[in-house]
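Researcher: Hi, I'm a grad student and pretty new to this. My advisor asked me to get structures for two proteins we've been looking at. I'm not sure of the right format, so I'll just paste the first sequence and hope you can take it from there.
Model: That works fine. Here's the first sequence with its C-alpha cells right after it:
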Amino acid sequence: DDLREKFPGNSYHYMRKNCNSFSNALAEALLGEEIPGYINRMAKIGSFFLDIDDFVRMRPYDSKY
C-alpha cells in the first residue's frame, strides 16, 4: 500500500520513473536492499541527458553570443 502512493499509474516515465524504479522500491521495502545498479543504468544515463536538455531549454536565449 505504501508504494501505491509513490507510484500512481500516471507517474510513469520511461527514464525517470519506470518499472525498474518500482522494482527497486519494492526490493527495498521487502528486503532492505536495492536492486543492482546495472539494471537501471541506461535509464539513469538517459535521464541525465534529459536533465541537461531541460536546463538548456529553460535558459533565455541571448543573441549576443
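Researcher: Oh nice, that was easy. Here's the second one.
Model: And its structure:
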Amino acid sequence: MTRRILVPIDGSEQVATAATFAVENFPGATIVLFHVINPSEAGYSTKASVSSVSDRWYEEQQAEAHERFDELEASIGDGNSIDRVVEMGRPNATIVNYAEDNDIDQIVM
C-alpha cells in the first residue's frame, strides 16, 4: 500500500523544508501538495463583492498555487509520485477535512 503524505503549501520559507522532509522520510510515498485558498483574504470591499473581481481574484490565487507547486516539484526531484490539490476554505479545517476524507497517512508542515 502506497503511503499518502499531505504537505500544505502556504508560501512560507518552511514549505520547502517540509516538502524535502516528506520526500526524504517517506520514499516511494505519494506526496500531496495541498494549497488552501482562504476566501477571507479576498477582502470585503464593494469591489470584492462584484463577481468579475471575485472570479479574477480566485483565478490569480489558483495560478499562484500552481506556481508554488511547480517550484516545489523542481526542488524535491524525482522518486515520489506527486499530486496537486487546491481547495477553498479556512486553512486549518480544510487541511484536516481533506486528510480525513482522502486516506492521508501523515501531514508534514
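Researcher: Is there anything I should tell my advisor about the second?
Model: You could mention this: The radius of gyration is 15 Å.
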